[in-house]
Amino acid sequence: MYVRDLEPGCLLDAEKPEFVFALRPLDPHWPGAKELYALGVHHQAAIMPAKTALNSQLMSMMPPKYAIVTTSEVGIFMNDVRLKTPYAGLYKHYILLINDHQAVVDGYQFRDLKKVC
Question: Cα separation of 29 and 32, whole Å?
């Protein structure tokens, strides 16, 4: 799927049925995190197999503040944002609404998504 085909409010689903959105808090050590916090975004999302997300929640080697918060099968595309300082090495991110949380994803995640609306 291409990001250019999306409009705000489009429903997104994982391309494979066994994949989910996994949310975790932003890493405050990345320089762009402050800009995202100012926009009201406090989470980042990744597309991963549900089994991996569940195992990550249960047996996380990461400190609890970085552990996966929630998973969801669908997300709503909100808009894109271009940061002045990079977050996770990228300047452009996309904001999705997932389980009442605004979360950012990078463009690479869209290869595992499909447009529902």
Answer: 9
Is 85:68 a contact under the CB 8 Å cutoff?
no
Can you give the residue ranges of every domain in the chain? 3-115
Give the number of other Cβ atoms within 10 Å of residue 110's Cβ.
Answer: 20
How far lies 86's CA from each of 37, 51, 112, in Å?
13, 30, 23
In 3D space, the residue among 34, 107, 33 whose CA is nearest the CA of residue 77 turns out to be 107
Chain segment 58-117, per-residue pLDDT in tens? 545 555 555 666 777 889 999 999 999 999 899 999 999 998 899 999 988 888 888 988
Please give the angle made by the CA atoms of 19, 20 and 21, to the nearest 5 degrees. Answer: 140
Alpha-carbon distance of 58 to 56, in angstroms, equals 6
pTM: 0.84
